[in-house]
Amino acid sequence: MSMILASLFLGVVFQGDPAQELAAVVARARKVESYAFQVETTSSGGFRGRGAPATLSVLGAWQQGRPVRLESGGTVAFRDGERTVFQDAEGDWKAFDRGAMRGRFGGRGGAAAGRLGGRREGAGGEPPEGGRPPEGAEPPPGAGPPPAGGAREPDPERRAMMDRMMLLRAPLPHALLADLGAGVGEVERSEGEGGAVHYHGTLTPEGAAKLGGLRRPGGRGPEFEHSGSFELTVGADGRIQGFAYEVVSKGSFRGREIELKRSTRVVISGIGSTTVEVPAAAAAALASSGAGSDEEF
User: Fold this and answer.
1) 269 three-state secondary structure
2) How many whole angstroms separate alpha carbon 20 and alpha carbon 235?
3) What domains are there in the chain, each with its CATH number?
């Protein structure tokens, strides 16, 4: 299908400028009423660019005026504005306990603080309160040496808490798309198979920082330079099929070079036909968890 025909589906007439075309695509996407999605983010790097990649994946369904359904690692949640409830191992729906998260992950910043340079209790320096375990004693769940060939898996309770925390904070595709549209630099267009159209190019430093750049907590820590690239595919029907971007953040900390990479890929389906069914128990848990603010596309 030609670009002219695709433009009819979008309700706009393109002028041949890829950047203007992309802006029109993003604006048109804001009018959809529902969609299903998968967001997969891979982060890697660290000091001198080293560090094993870590991939997080979120499945979801969004419908205008309804809570968004989110799923990751076997954890299912519904989020309505700032209210989030999840289904526990017994099948009960519960509000997300921020206090438990802070206690489990060591206070403000939690796990993120440990990964990004914050000092975790027992990580170097003085041993944790209570001293070291007696020689020959069994390590607590989740402790002990890592398995051969890879990093140690967290204990189930910690893993579940990490999944819940991720679902609490996971950005939705339409928010990412808005940031992408506002943060593109150079834009090119190419035609794909079956009438698909591909947009690709660079991100501005500001756009890269907003989409995936490492932020300094409270304005502290090292400053980073951000760069990035993106691609976005529009199907023959004029609808966005998905988009992806990669952000590279470079800086230094205490004389050591840091390079972090974050790649995000979003697949969108069921535009206009996706429905979100909220179980009665989940709806009741949301209603009793405090005031929320419905997020509109």
Assistant:
1) strand
2) 18
3) 3-104+152-287 (2.50.20)
